[in-house]
Each structure stands twice: as C-alpha cells, then as structure tokens.
Amino acid sequence: MEPIDVFKALSNEIRLNILQWLKEPEKHFPKQGAHLPKEVSYKGGVCVGDIQEKAKTSQSTVSHYLNMMQQAGLLESVRYGKWTYYRRNEETIRQFAEYFRTEI
Amino acid sequence: MEPIDVFKALSNEIRLNILQWLKEPEKHFPKQGAHLPKEVSYKGGVCVGDIQEKAKTSQSTVSHYLNMMQQAGLLESVRYGKWTYYRRNEETIRQFAEYFRTEI
DNA sequence: TTGACATATCTAGAAAATTAGATATAATAT
DNA sequence: ATATTATATCTAATTTTCTAGATATGTCAA
C-alpha cells in the first residue's frame, strides 16, 4: 500500500463517494442488480453498472476510477459471469488509517 | 476541515514529506534558523527558507505548497519579523484521522 | 454462430496541478 | 532613506488528471 496512491485516489469527490457508498451497499444500492442472490452479490460487492448509475458519470470513467482505486489497494473485484463486482478492501483501508494515525 | 482538500494536499510527495518533517522539527531541521532562541522557533514552527532547503525546490513552490496546506487546515503560521514559521495544526490532523477511521 | 449486454481499454480534448522565474511586499539593518 | 533579506504573489509553460466517445473483449442467451 503506497500512501501517496491512496491520497490521490481519494482526492476526487466521486471516488471518495464510491468508497463510502461501498461501506453500506444495501443502503446506497437498494435496487441492486438482482443478477445474483442478494447475499452473494453484496458479499461480492456492487457491479460497475450500479455504481455508474449512482455516480452519474460515464461508463468508461467509472471503470477507470474503480481500476485506479483497486490499484491503490482500496478495492478488490470479483467477476461473476458478465458482471464485475467491486467491494472494499478493508485490510488496506485499516492499514492506511493506522499509517495516518502513527506516521502522519 | 474539508477532507477532499486534505487528501489533495497530501497527494504530493513533497507536501507529505513536509508534514512528516514538521512532526519532529529538531530531527529534520537541526541547523534551524538561529533567528530566534531555539525553544521559540520550534514552538513557532520552522521558517520557509529552512523548509525550502530541505525540500530542494524553489522558493515560490514551497511558499505555494505551505499556503495550500494551511488552507487545508494541516498547517498554521506565525510571523516573527521577516520570517514566517509554519507548524502543524495537530487539531485538524487529529480530526482527519478520526474522520477517516469512522467515516471512510 | 449470432446478437445483446457488461465491462475494459484506447484515444484525445479539456481542465487542473506542478513548478519556477519575475516581481511585489514587508521587515530589518546601515 | 536605502539596501538587503524573507516571503508572498503573479505569470506562464509543462505535466498530470479528468472525462467521455469509440472500440475491444468476454460472457450469456437464443
């Protein structure tokens, strides 16, 4: 986990929102996919299309952002069929909080 | 304190370094100013010139960066004579750590 | 196999950040 | 008053980020 990459990833309002939305997916993505049983898709995260709709930006931009956040270690993804589900990587997020608390 | 501004301020290696250096000014600015008695100048922070020298970048850039970090709430400044001393704003830094821990 | 759909990648123009030189301002020393 | 020094601000060139349209890839359904 490179702290600079985390700071960069979160220095954009849309990306910061995405990370916060994914903290409570049931709350922010209520009419979620239905491509899969509820418990599976929430455990696996939220699909790109649902995030795009909520973020009100283009498909390519969302895909780019999600990839950027994954590179920074903030998200991880799983593919089920044609859908890619993104969810938070809580371990990195915790590590970053600890890094900030102790080293900044 | 606007979290986005803090993320932006720290998404640059030089600025992140400055914040870390100012955590232990005696360690990172040993031959510090001498414009003022040691305890005064460390309490008041480190002057722009010393930070510039350490950061190895131009005077205007450092001044710009310090101002940016102050706007974000990460630093505060005091002027003694012709020197401006910058120091950390520990309250904001603590608030941000808490924000990250609880809301991100 | 073909068609439709979800997502990723490529490309490029627009916007913002980075950076330093030039200049302005403010304080001190002579 | 003038010269010097420290810092701030202005300006502009360069680099990076943002963003979306176009296209490619992968998967499923008919």
UniProtKB/TrEMBL annotation, chains A, B:
Keyword Transit peptide listed: no
Presence of the UniProt keyword Transferase in the record: no
SUPFAM superfamilies: Winged helix' DNA-binding domain (SSF46785)
GO molecular function: DNA binding; DNA-binding transcription factor activity
TM region positions: none
Keywords: DNA-binding, Transcription, Transcription regulation
HTH arsR-type domain segment(s): 1-104
Cited Pfam families: HTH_5
Record's protein name: Transcriptional regulator, ArsR family
Native source organism of the sequence: Gracilibacillus orientalis
